[in-house]
Amino acid sequence: MMRLFTPAPDSLLAQLRSPLSMRWQAGLSLFALVAVFQGPLSVGHATGTWLVPTLLAVPVFVYLYSRVYVGPRRHHAWYVAGMAATALALWVCNPFGFVLLALAAVLSAFSPSWRRWLASVAIIGTLALVKAWAFGDPFGQALAVVMAGLFGGFSNVAYMFSARKDAELRLSQSEVRRLAILAERERIGRDLHDLLGHTLSLVALKSELGKRLALAEPARAQREMEEVERVARHALAEVRAAVTGMRRSDLAAELTSARLMLEASGVMLDGELPEGLDLPGHVEAPLALVLREAVTNIHRHARATRASVALSIDGSGIGMRIGDNGKGGLAAHGNGVSGMRERVRGLGGTLSIESPPRRGTLLSIRVPLQARATAALQRADATVALPSAGGRA
Length: 393
Fold this sequence. Notes:
By secondary structure, this protein is an alpha+beta fold. The protein has helices at about 10-15, 20-30, 35-40, 45-70, 75-95, 100-105, 115-135, 140-215, 220-245, 250-265, 280-300, 335-345, 370-390; strands spanning about 270, 305-315, 315-325, 350-355, 360-370. About 70% of the residues lie in helices and about 10% in strands. Helix 7 (about 115-135) packs antiparallel against helix 8 (about 140-215).
């Protein structure tokens, strides 16, 4: 039974990556079925004339209704046609069967094109008018079917357009990330090949030579092994320098990553870096990590719709402002904020927070670029470098 309601690969839910809002809409719309049972009872119709046909028609209608969402989209027109036929047949016995016909008209908007939707509404509306005329039903019921198909269908068309754009955006972001990862892997592979290929070949040759000379010419063998040691240490220094460059964070990459993260969650990010930005590595890396932490907080907690990043540089230092229009109330001493404060303080700078409730949050960071701050940064760099001096990789 569950296989009948499992989305096909080319179904509506599968193509839109099964959005939660659409699944909720599909479930809530089925509450219209209550009308085909409660309506006849409210107007005093004898149950013997409508109850059995309704009990037979509703399961068929629900099955076709579910296939609109989980069945192949190429069969969409057949599902809607089956729903309309079932609703018309029920309407003959049940005066509230037009409710199901209106629901079929609304779901016709999930057609692959808006022209098919309008054609479906026109056909369903014509059938409703003919039925009302032939059986003497109020024309208001037929008009309700047409209006539901147009207005309800238009909301579905607008939703489909937005959902397709969102799905395309997510796919493009995934492709950008995949290509970026692939390019980084290729770059790392090239760098390691260039760094280690020649060096390891030289080490192997000299080690082999030293082995052959170990007994015949010990002094020369010793010189060869000393050369091997020198080459190996040089290669190790180059690898450490390359790894340091790979680990280094930069503001441009973090801003691009922040835009992808926020826009994927519906938050528009405004902000560009100044042209020709060239900051010292020991300054740019901590600022990039501060930006990452701030954007992560916006993504997880702010409930914002817009965010902004502004960076300015003048003769006295660097200023960075990160803001959003979310719920505000950011704790001034949370773990994330404490980490940002420590990084900014390590640069000799200051971080201030303005976060009134329901009025967003603004982080203002100021980092001086004076001789005193530079000396503090150099001392911090020397402290960080001490563990590697002890031989740790």
